[in-house]
Amino acid sequence: MLNDFLWNFLDLQVRPLEIFCDSCGGQNKNYTMFRFLHYIVHNTHRLDYVKVTFPIRGHSYMEPDKNMGLINSHQRAEIPSDWVEIFRSARAKPSPFDVVEIDQSYFRAWTNFFNTKTDYLKKCPFRSRPIRELEIHQEHHRLIYYRESYNGA
């Protein structure tokens, strides 16, 4: 999804990207995501700089968290189109959620892609769980900066 956003929605003149992600280890704090961001900066040259901030759990109060709270997870959904309707009807104001229906062809096998490239290690050389901020800079091809504390600056 991030790949689609970067190439099809984000203005091509935008060169730095700063994003906030929850700290879920299986979703955003995984090595494939780190390799993907490095690839976007250093191989495709779509961005010059990426900074990812992982707020402390329960302290973000960000808009996506509020929006997910509107979804009735107790509604019965048997097929993907059921979820489309649940999301569309979850909010009326300020406007209904804009739901984009996708099929399997939308998804990429990034893990397999990076595992076949010789310039990426198969195993993350550092522990991802304690990371609070991650940065990738165009001018430092072989480096991924990270820190385990967060000072808000």
Automatic annotation (TrEMBL):
Protein name per Swiss-Prot or TrEMBL: Uncharacterized protein
Organism for this UniProt entry: Acanthoscelides obtectus
Lineage, highest ranks first: Eukaryota, Metazoa, Ecdysozoa, Arthropoda, Hexapoda
